[in-house]
Amino acid sequence: MAQATYITTEELAGRLHYDSRYIREYLKDSVLLEGIHYIRPFGRRKILFIWETIERDMLKCSAEEMPMIPLARGGVVNG
To answer: In 10 A of CB 19, how many CB atoms?
Structure first.
């Protein structure tokens, strides 16, 4: 099993270049989901984010939104 990197809201804000308040008020529970992107250790108030899951989902969404133009020989051009 791969080792997960647990980070605080402030550390996540630093990595994503977002304000920690924006993460708590807008991203948590709408984009970042409990049990997938973050956990509450021992059922307490403190929240720890799982960096690898957040990074994976950011990259996946970014690749899905990238427009692609098909070429005649089967390739694609990112447009």
So the answer is: 11
3-class DSSP state of 21: helix
For the chain, the domain total comes to: 1
Residues paired with residue 68 on neighbouring β-strands, in sequence order: 78
CB atoms near residue 32 (< 10 Å): 20
Six token digits for residue 67: 């427009």
CATH of the domain at 37: 1.10.1660
pLDDT in tens, 34-51: 999 999 999 899 999 999
* pLDDT of 10: 97
In this structure, is residue 59 part of a structural domain? yes
Q: Is residue 1 part of a domain?
A: no
How many CB atoms are located within 10 Å of the residue 73 CB? 5
Alpha-carbon distance values, 57 to 9, 32, 43, 77 (Å): 17, 10, 25, 23
